[in-house]
């Protein structure tokens, strides 16, 4: 290990001097991370941490098989998808096989934001209309299009006032703290979707009509909140009745993380028209994809050709293939199911003893611990969540809050997390809550 810098804040000052500060870092006094291994991180003082936050590193940090595959592919060939090479077709056919039903056609890009942007353009080109319906409190990325459909005030306090005119927001279908709760909640939220769609019919020129609807199939940004049963099925039906296209943003919750399901949309029992995927797919290498039907993809030719310089490059495709091979050979989706269920049970048990825990959300290794000041009013415990995260850092666990009120501990570790590491985290959380 390298010797730590003498002044622990010197590197932070250098960071701030040249890296735009709006690109925030975790913690006021963050550890300087030097290496990663599986679900562990090690800092320059040789302190180790369990990484409970990095959902991108799905197969774990520094996976030797991935390292070797990337090194070999770089040494052999890296070019772009205008050239003809095997890795591209191998990867897109694997993705098409994994995708549900008629989704058999793949675009390869470099990030979740790019995938969402492209999905929006596909929906708009396919329908010849502009309006996208999106869910309040969601986050879909930073590019112009992906940002437009993002309305989380936790990420951008002015988000609700600044959406462009082609974006319409529906109620956040939040089964825990939303407007409608309990078994019949979906009906309330669907009435809101129907009202938004009816209002669209009365609005402006033809091209202002409905192009599509975008939602995460598990409410990731809100902290892994499951959507009310029947919500996506009902919303997709309403959207399709009006010729709209249904986009499932699987960037966070899809790709095996839920354990029981490879895609979040399976949990809701729906088949989207377009799926966006990124993060886990590249294990940290910039990879994103849009998976759709041949018909929707072909209609995009109206926009000319489509090209992404590094999207689907031999190295990117090799990374994507190797990540899928590792997930299959190491049974990581199954591990997410088993370890996720164990961790959820531990957290549920803590929730019974500590009233600060209002709810444990999520499935598999996408969990959220929602902290409240009052179990009746559900007043969010945002400041407490921040303090708990700081205390957990001292205990050797890296976890961060999310949601509009930053009061949900978002638990999304590498999928190779062990039962021992899950217990280490739950024990640490128990100590911190007791204190
Ligand atoms: N969609 C969702 C649901 C996301 O969570 C994110 C990133 N947090 C994105 C899209 C954007 O992905 P990226 O950061 O790779 O651009």
UniProtKB/TrEMBL annotation:
Keywords: Aminotransferase, Pyridoxal phosphate, Transferase
GO molecular function annotation: pyridoxal phosphate binding; transaminase activity
Keyword Ribonucleoprotein: no
Lyase recorded as keyword: no
Family: Belongs to the class-III pyridoxal-phosphate-dependent aminotransferase family.
Protein name as catalogued: Aminotransferase
Classification of source organism: Bacteria, Bacillati, Actinomycetota, Actinomycetes, Micrococcales
Residues of the full protein shown: 531 to 965 of 965
